[in-house]
Amino acid sequence: MNLDALTFVVRFQTAQFKLHFQKLARRTYFIPPPSAVAGFFGAIMGVERSELRNFCKKQSVLVGAELRHLEGFYITISRIFKFDRDKNGIVQLLEEFLSRKPIGKRGLENVYKDMLGLLPLKESEELLKPEYKFAIVAKDIVVKECLRRILEFDFKYDVFGGNDYHFVEYIGNVREGHLIKSKEGSGYCPAKYLGRIKSEAYTIITDTTYIPTSGIPQTPIVIFAQVGPRMENFAFVYRANIVTNQEINAVSDGESTIFVYDPRGYLV
User: Fold this and answer.
1) d(CA 12, CA 254)
2) Exposed/middle/buried for 83, CB within 10 Å: 0-12, 13-18, 19+?
3) pTM as predicted
4) Low-confidence ranges of the chain (pLDDT < 70)
5) CB proximity list for 109: less than 8 A, separation 6 or greater
6) Cβ distance 175 to 8 under 8 Å?
């Protein structure tokens, strides 16, 4: 079995790679985890979401990514309203609230109370113009087809930065890569493999809500987050290399060395 590898650069206008275990508060990974990179690769190759796991197994897929540039990080806040079909549901309540005239024996204070119950806040973290380099390993025929599709922009499905309202601004700069074993690379790694960060100074962030108020630190950033159904703790690193405590899979393209992983263990 011949395995091959390539890397390519993707820049999004905005992006959000949501932590799968959160609902109302939509936190985002700084770097798309293996599942998101595999989904992006599958969209290019025309793989149905339901078939992605089998595709990755059959084609011996390994994936990873590094963050090359990020212009901003922000939180949007919205309110969610559920509109009932029943006239006596939300529509009636809105009429009572706007007219300040409760129907029946209900007091106005009860109308206000019910309205507050309809106004949950939804927080959504999003990334402004993040630029990544994706690394892909697969059987050589699949990698060659992926190369052709990127060069010709011949994608089976549309690709996005996590959701269909986060658009791709640029994709290209494809480079041939090689699968190697390495103790130094970029992107992310399971915390159990983390030896050290190759930098004299760096900032560890445990709560990303700190960033919008304080800005993105100028020093390298290390963010820990749980990934996949097993909630494995990963270290995501920006502006610095990771030194692991043992050799793990990586793709080297002569410019970068990016750690890569079997995405099947992280699909949910």
Assistant:
1) 24
2) exposed
3) 0.83
4) 1-2, 22-25, 80-88, 117-120, 213
5) none
6) yes
